[in-house]
Amino acid sequence: MRELQDTVKALFDKGEIDLFIGYEKGTRTPRPFFVHKAEDAENLIFDAACSGNLAVYLTRKDLTGGKKTGISASYYALKSIAQLFDENQLKAENLRIFGVSEEGSVQFFDSVAAIKQHLSATPPPAKPDEDELVGKINAMTASERWKFWSDELSKCFKCYACRAACPMCYCTKCIVEVNRPQWIQPWASTLSNMEWQINRVMHLAGRCSDCGSCGTACPLGIPVHLLTHKMSETVKEHFGVSETKENVLSTFKPDDKENFIH
Amino acid sequence: MIHNNCLQITDKGLKDWLAKIIAGGKQLYAPVREGDKTAFKWLDSVAEISMEHIQTTQSAKAVAFPRAEKLFSYQKEKGAVTLQDYNPDNLSETVIFGLHPCDAAGFRPLGSIFNWDTPDKPYNERRKRMTLITVSCTKSDEFCFCTSVNGGPGNTEGSDILLTPLKKDYLVEIITEKGQKLVEAYQSCFDTPPENSDKEACLAKVPVRFSPEEVSRKLSGMFESKVWETQSERCLGCGACAFVCPACACFDIQENSKGNSGDRLRCWDSCGFSLFTLHTSGHNPRSTQSQRWRQRLMHKFSYMPDRLSVIGCTGCGRCSRACPVDMNIAEHLADIG
């Protein structure tokens, strides 16, 4: 903790950053915290409970536009940052990216390659509760699964917290906001809620870091992150892990499999 | 014989009463536990009711102000248009059981907005069919702040009947004529109260965080303040806070059209969304998240007290519990006030 605070103070003192995005103590769990000057760095914290994906703020031009920005990134935030670089959404010269190891030591990443190297050498944090629920859903018959998701998504009131919390949902105009033509009915109902989630998940194909922030953000506790999780597994199974900047959503090859079309 | 409009009911009597209300043809909306959350549901059986929660995920406002409401339908044929106006005839008589005083109180700001100039037919038709059986709070958490917005854990405002869990049974306070009717119809379920029912001793202790008058006074001079940018930095711009709020009434009008016919719908909207108040011209008077956060606090704690003589907040704390980034409203208001 102390090391991160000192590192951030030094960055401000040397004029290397104008803004640092980290975590501070929240009401129950740590919350995002924006540091604008060296003395505020004292409130920074970073531990296993700091799980919200801060990469979501890096594409917010109103917050970070024109600013040299530092960020303390969790495992999944690093994954999202690497993906955002691949999608040409970030400028390396404006960013100072830090990870924090389990022992609390601060690790500086000087390039996307260094982040990717770190990610390939680090196992993702365990998610036992999610694994259990995924196991249950996988064991369901198609009709049981339909009922499970119909029940869950009937609750959705379209607050779009899942979208707002996602670092990869950086579109300035989301498909649900397009009304000429209106692709998705904008009011909340079971069917239109499903349409929204299917679209959200498809747009994240090959891009999702599987951080789970969408599910954590849902005020109604709908496990929407399991949809993106399942999609990530499916993408890996059918297309493998991309070694290049290409991703499943935005890449087309003439020899792509078409055996799913009946 | 009802003494001082107070009665007492046992746990078993309460279940019998609610079961008889369902059997009598009224729709019952009550809290049901699902995993670590509790939500209001339409129930056929009282066995599912849970009262262990501090707060349900959503308020009960959807009964009077559904997330999507059909205002009218239309058909076009050979240039002629026929309209079917909102028809309240099929709306059911409803009993909401197990809401807390902060939710019952929420129908005052909601009703004030929906009756501001033109009385709103769908809201008023639904509201007049509702009877509220509220349960006082015996516990609270760090997000509760009803006592800072003129409420309290045993507040009777908005309720037709208020139940307070005593050591063993429930104290029953009959607040309105509607409540009186619902008790009189099933009088055998109730007992008269013992002489000294100490209601206050059974209530949760909710500390006062700020003075609403002080907050309102300060807000009136804070439109250009830098505080909005600072407070809203972490806000992600979703609608979770508005949708769980018992007093938020903003809505959007949508069209569900199919060829030559369709429905005009009223749907929940949120001042947190970037599309909120976006004009057709492309101009948005609230183009940044900080302006939208300012609108949220100003509307609830300055404009509504000024124009409707009611605070647009009942201190239920749901917005703070629901927020993915802990935009704790009581904390922000305490910083201002």
General description of the model:
The complex is a heterodimer of chains A (262) and B (337). Chain A is of the alpha/beta class. Chain A is 38% helix and 10% strand. Chain A folds into two domains: 2-121, no CATH class; 128-239, Orthogonal Bundle (Fumarate Reductase Iron-sulfur Protein, Chain B, domain 2). Chain A has a five-stranded mixed sheet with strand order 2-1-3-4-5. Chain B is an alpha/beta fold and 337 residues long. Chain B has two domains: 1-65 and 77-208, no CATH class; 209-337, no CATH class. Helix content of chain B is 29%, strand content 22%. Chain B has eleven helices and eleven strands. A seven-stranded mixed sheet of chain B has the order 1-9-8-7-6-2-3. In chain B, strands 5-4-11-10 form a four-stranded antiparallel sheet, with no helix packed on it. In chain B, a hairpin with a 4-residue loop joins strand 8 and strand 9. The mean pLDDT of chain B is 95. The chains are: A alpha/beta (262), B alpha/beta (337). The interface between A and B is large, with 34 and 40 residues.
User: Main sheet of chain A: which strands, in order across?
Assistant: 2-1-3-4-5
Number of domains of chain B: 2
The largest sheet of chain B is: 7 strands, mixed
**Which strands sit side by side, in order, in the main sheet of chain B?**
1-9-8-7-6-2-3
The largest β sheet of chain A comes out as: 5 strands, mixed
Q: Number of folding domains of chain A?
A: 2
Order of helices and strands of chain A: HEEHEHEEHHHHHHH
Mean pLDDT of chain A: 93
Number of strands of chain A: 5
The interface involving the most residues is between:
A-B, 34 and 40 residues
Distance between termini of chain B?
Answer: 48 Å
